[in-house]
Each structure stands twice: as C-alpha cells, then as structure tokens.
Backbone:
C-alpha cells in the first residue's frame, strides 16, 4: 500500500465512520507493507532495551521506547540500515585503533631513542673520566 492508497482509505473511512474513529483505525495499521515489517527473528540482536541502548543513537531511542515499539514499527530496511551503520562504525573504530597504536609506537620509539642517547653519552663520559683518573693516578703522563 502506498501513501496515496493510505490517504484515500483514510478519507473514505472518515466519510463512513467519522474523522476520529477513522484516525484511530488508521493509527492501528502498520506504517509499511506487511512483508516489509520486521519479524522477531530480525530483531533477535536487540534482545532488550539495554542492548538497543548500547548500539543505538539517542534519536533511535526516542523513536523506539521499548522492544515492543521496535517490533511494531521497524522495517527490514530500517534494521539493514542500522546494521550497515554498525559495520561502518566498526571500520571507523578499527581505523582509529590503528592510528592510535601507530602514534603510541612512534612516541615510545622516540622516547627510548632519546633515553638511550643520554645514557650512552653519560656512560662514555664516565669511561673517559675514569680512564683519565687512572692515568693520573698511575703517574703516566
């Protein structure tokens, strides 16, 4: 049923039943075709409202207050879109993880290199000073 057919049905019901009963009846009809409504199997990943809250945006939660609301109003296309958004988010998070890891490794490498240079210069200075001290102490000039 398309929007035009829904409108015509609403108008005819309004003529026969009156505006308020027609509006009530139209509110009880699904917002989309029956074959496009989600089944319980489609909603399996969303076991509870808490599960939905972990993966949905605030706007999604305002639209679907409970699992029952989700079952009544979500279409397969909606669920596919949500699934696609989660996949995109997973890829973005994975890319961010790689960037953070590579930045950490670069910082760690720079810190270890600087520390090693400092220790090497200090050790070399100590060896030169001890050698000089030994030469002076033994009387070799």
Residues:
């Amino acid at each position: 049923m398309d929007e035009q057919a829904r409108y015509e049905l609403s108008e005819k019901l309004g003529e026969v039943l009156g505006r308020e009963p027609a509006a009530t009846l139209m509110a009880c009809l699904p917002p989309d075709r029956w074959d496009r409504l989600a089944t319980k199997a489609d909603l399996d990943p969303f076991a509870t409202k808490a599960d939905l809250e972990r993966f949905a945006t605030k706007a999604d939660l305002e639209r679907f207050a409970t699992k029952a609301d989700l079952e009544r109003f979500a279409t397969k296309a909606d669920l596919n879109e949500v699934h696609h958004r989660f996949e995109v988010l997973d890829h973005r998070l994975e890319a961010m993880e790689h960037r953070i890891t590579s930045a950490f490794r670069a910082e760690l490498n720079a810190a270890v290199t600087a520390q090693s240079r400092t220790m090497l210069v200090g050790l070399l200075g100590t060896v030169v000073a001890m050698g000089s001290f030994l030469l002076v102490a033994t009387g070799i000039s």
Notes: Residues 31-138 form one domain. The chain is about 75% helix and 0% strand.
